[in-house]
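Need tokens for this chain, all 354 residues.
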Amino acid sequence: MESEKRPKTLKLSIIVSLCLSIAIILVILYFTFDAETFAHLSGQNIRYEFFFAAVLVNFIFWILWGARLRALANAVESDVKISLWESTKIVMANLFLANITPSMAGGEPVRIYLLNKDGLSVGCATAVVLGERLLDAIFLMICFPFAFFVFRTKINTGALSIGLTIALAVFVVVVGLFIYALKNPEKIKSFVLFLNKKLGRFSRKNQIESKIVERINEEVDNFHESMVCFLSHKKMDFIKACFFTASFWILGWMVPVLILMGLGLQPHLIESCAAQILLIIIVMMPTTPGSAGVTEGGAAALYSVFISPHLIGIFILLFRLITYHMGLIVGVIFQYRIFKSVASFSLDTIKTRK
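Here are the structure tokens for all 354 residues:
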């Protein structure tokens, strides 16, 4: 029964994320598309080459993400060498589940599994994926003051201000918990074992507790040793990973800039980058599947500060087509090629293929 429910849950996530995204885009278009929009699109303002450039930049974004994943993987386990193409395939395969789960959390088990399949231990693969989150968090926290400074006098929407405040608070708490876990592995072991005992009461399977304890201790130790090794002894790899982190985020922020230029508008480089930083912090909150609806609404609120109202809907449509829907399509293709399944995929698929 449980195995039948999981595919249904996944299908529901797909339907909800797509319906929310499309519905909010249609609502924004309904309230912003008018005669001025039609006149602008019918004129000589549109530069299609910038739209193609935005699509290309999005693919380069995934390649740089793959380069960072490769740098981290090769750092935590030097005996295993992963190629750039292999790490990029891992990134592309994770896009589907990442885009239909809150906070993009669904992509992480996929990356962990595929890294493990390429030779890393589960603990080391987990350290790599959590290391990615840590680098993202550090970079975005460094960038946040810049974004806040740019928008400090422009955010006059109460809901947006509250959303940003909550998102930043959650963001800081999660980073703090991660650092605590890194410094106190024994306490994390105790906590995980406590959870295992509590949840074990609801399990129908008769598992041998000593094996569970041994596996948890082993993977926590692997994770801790990998992260300490990475942060203490692999400083060049850390610097390389930091470079790739900054590179792919900044490059990703060029996608909306190119879309603006394609629409014949000013690029608003500074304002657009600041809007992307704030939007990412909002999207990191575990809200809807793939943050669908939240992203469209947040982007519309942020970009309405410096884009004419009659072009907001068209901008959001193009922005989400390139950064979200294209990722879903690429993710489906690569996930199916690897797992031979899309809608029926679950964590059990990972476990049975180990």
